[in-house]
Fold this sequence. Notes:
Distance between the termini: 17 Å
Active site: 37 (nucleophile), 206 (proton acceptor)
Oligomer: single chain
Domain PNPLA: 1-219
GO biological process, one term: lipid catabolic process
Number of helices: 15
InterPro entries: Acyl_Trfase/lysoPLipase, NTE, PNPLA_dom
Amino acid sequence: MLAGGGARGAYEMGVLAVLAPVLEEQGDQIEIIIGTSIGGINATYLAANAHRPLSEAAKGGAEVWRNLRYRDAMRSLLAPSALIQLLRFVGTFLGLPVKAVSSLLDTTPLRKTINRVIEFERIADNLADEGTPLHAVGVVATSYETGRSIVFHQGGETPPTNEERAIDYVAAQLTSVHVLASGAIPVIFPAVEVGEPASHRGWYGDGGARLNAPLDPALELGAERVIIIGLNSAEVPEDPPVATRPDLFDGAASLLGVLADQLTSDVATLTAINEAVEQDDDTGEADSHKKVPYIFVVPSDRMRIGRIALDVYARHYQSGRAILRFPNLALLGRITDAARNSMHGELYSYLFLAREFIDELIELGRADAQRWLDTEHDQWPWRLEGPTEV
């Protein structure tokens, strides 16, 4: 299960680069892949490359991230359309009769980029090929009309609706449109109109808004073991930002960080189920649940990626010269006031498509995955019980 945001998705490929050789050596195969937010890009990329060894696919995915640039995902902040959008913002603020603004940034180039790096036709081939392990792949988006989580999945039987968590499952032939919808962070990126399947035509936004860790979909589609890769730990950093009155960017970053609590809560629920099954086994009571071994890799604390973004920005993109060489990254840093503190850096990290930052995220993912492997577990490298911290 992959849950990411912006360039932060590079972290996931770093994690898989370390886990893949271990899984291959043990004969474990990835059969079900679920992604939410930017994790949808990684999920469909891995599904389209399921005919290759996982270690090879992860290496290729890391290279895809290393070669991504701002222009591959968003239109320039200096483009005429961006300036017109800025004027519309001002006009809206002044109450003038201007066209509504759909988002802060324009992600029009991203669809072309996704279609270039992901062979969506290969997903169907890999699902049909008995020689590949792929059983199902899904991406999670949030319906603007109903507020429910919609899991667009290709392959596998369609699970029943989960009314308790407001999750609907929809069989679909996945395309770049579903992936874009899954990663459309509200306010920052525009909503995406999904046309297929017709039964769920409508406008969608980021799947992480309601379902940051797609644990339920993975289990409903048949997963018996799960690998969960998250981008926000619930652990409080040792050096939290100085307590000052939060501004609007602190608030936005904090809202995005709330998703970390949901992810950790889901994993805690999984361990509780495993412990309950263990107790039933000890007492001889029948139970329909089975233990679900898991691997759970996240950064050491929730501000880790924000601090990396802040550091890279300060070293490479904060100077006056950087505005001339890298206007989009430098201007975004100033707009979000990225140098103020790690909370601002956290928000900036969702938009920071810089090679230096992506390289550090991949290395962070590798280090956190190795930290998991270096830890003793119930069924190494899998865990059944115990604390959810890594």
